[in-house]
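Supplementary Methods, section 5.1.

A reviewer requested that the exact input to the structure prediction be made available. We therefore reproduce it here, unchanged from the version used in the analyses.
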Amino acid sequence: MTVQIRLSEIDHARREDHGDGAWSIAPDLGYLRLAIVNVVFFGAPRSGDRNWVLIDTGLPTSRSSILAVAEKRFGTNARPAAVILTHGHFDHVGTVLDLANRWEVPVFAHRLEWPYLDGTESYPPPDPWVGGGLMALLSPLFPRGPIDLGNRLELLPADGSVPGMPGWQWLHTPGHAPGHISLWREEDRSLIVGDAFITTGQESVYEVAVQDLEMHGPPRYFTPDWDAAERSVKRLAALNPQMVITGHGAAAAGVGMRKALDSLAERFTVFAVPPKSKFVREPATAANS
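The structure derived from this sequence is encoded token-by-token as follows.
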């Protein structure tokens, strides 16, 4: 059974529809739900060529939706300055090579994600027995890579800055993936967390469809290192964010969101860690999975 944090005072981030297909939640920040996953657009609307950034690239079927939103949001033929990957799982990199080549744009990722992005190594197999629903049971069918981004792949800057995103910094938040990162803007306390934690139950087809606003740990079937995942959630909760965009589920904001995130950090084993995961005691690697 999945234990979730449901607090009635968790609020959706204030969202505006500007007719481009994405939800705008800040003047320079919006996100688009693509089936089971979100992608994030950074940059002022109508800012034009090379003046915006795409964070994650959705599923292999997401290409046309991303291109349509980008054109409406930033202008005809407006290319991003960079693509940033929170991590390399299939639902976050589904169109990355196609888009990177089309836009002639660099793709930035953490060094520990490079084996999964340069054709070297596949992720460990998922654990379908973590409970929660059909998505978990079907997880062995999901692609594990690797993909090869070739010369499009670049390292994130060592100083923590984010290419094309002034005022933001990247934070290493492993657990769900070795090189998983989150993005943080101190000025307005905005946080883009990928799958470090999420706001819907990703193990259940029903919960993925309805997306009730709940606070969850990372998707259970694809999280190989629960100790690292807990440390990452505690680090993010300590930032005291005002608004969060997660890789799965709606953006959330306000006091209720922070209370739920604090509860997740304080009782991570209860709320997040599956009781029978084969990876609870020993982190998964390609060698031991």
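The two ends are 24 Å apart (CA to CA). These observations are discussed further in the main text.
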